[in-house]
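wait is this the right file?? whatever heres the structure
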């Protein structure tokens, strides 16, 4: 579904992404891990078009998207969430997701004056909120939601864009440990044909969720493989995991 070929990005003499090649199959559950400063978020920014690569290619379902802008890639199905929430605090989840559905279906120009008439968008928003278990708090202001619920709302907004590839940048960041399991259980219930690439530092969550893991170190891809392969790899254990693989097992 998504292929990266020899992707590099430099800022002057500093190369932050170094000849990275990566493949996400349809329905992939793929984790990107590595030390702080390894270039993980930079890679997400390159995939979404927030940054332009210095060299290399990005393909979606075999078609090149390297030269497209962020909004063009989003329309084609490359959708992301962010490390820090980007929500409207006074909107309800239902309003926010309904507007996102209107944008994705090309009806946003009508939504502000006649949102109540957009019954199909409202129905779609309810279905998405149910998918992420937010229907019980759909009509309260977003600012009143627990932080874990707000992270789920970000996922709901991403789903409203009808993604083919979903890129999650540290989705569990800032969530109390007792709530992060709910988030990842919800991610595990997403459609089986949706390809997911996530950045996450909680190795227990990574090893429970991902079927493939790639390790990025100093902008370069160190290893890719199954969780078992990554946990047992001496280079990965030396550079990043240390004893974390044992705690995650």
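ok assuming it is, sequence goes like this
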């Amino acid at each position: 579904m998504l292929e990266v070929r020899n992707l590099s990005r430099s800022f002057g003499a500093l190369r932050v992404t170094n000849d990275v090649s990566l493949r996400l199959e349809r329905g992939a559950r793929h984790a990107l891990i590595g030390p702080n400063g390894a270039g993980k978020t930079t890679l997400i920014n390159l995939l979404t078009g927030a940054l332009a690569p210095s060299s290399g290619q990005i393909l979606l379902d075999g078609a090149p998207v390297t030269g497209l802008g962020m909004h063009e890639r989003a329309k084609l199905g490359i959708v992301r969430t962010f490390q820090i929430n980007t929500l409207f605090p006074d909107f309800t989840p239902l309003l926010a997701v309904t507007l996102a559905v209107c944008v994705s279906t090309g009806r946003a120009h009508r939504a502000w004056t006649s949102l109540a008439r957009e019954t199909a968008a409202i129905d779609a928003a309810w279905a998405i909120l149910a998918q992420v278990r937010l229907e019980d708090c759909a009509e309260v202001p977003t600012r009143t939601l627990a932080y874990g619920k707000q992270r789920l709302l970000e996922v709901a907004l991403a789903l409203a864009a009808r993604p083919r590839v979903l890129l999650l940048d540290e989705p569990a960041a800032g969530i109390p440990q007792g709530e992060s399991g709910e988030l990842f259980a919800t991610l595990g219930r997403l459609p089986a044909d949706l390809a997911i690439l996530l950045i996450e530092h909680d190795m227990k969550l990574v090893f429970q969720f991902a079927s493939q893991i790639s390790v990025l170190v100093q902008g370069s891809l160190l290893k890719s493989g199954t969780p078992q392969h990554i946990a047992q790899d001496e280079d990965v254990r030396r550079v990043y995991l240390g004893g974390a693989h044992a705690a995650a097992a």
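The domain at 1-77+163-249 is CATH 3.40.50.300 (Rossmann fold). so i think its the right one actually
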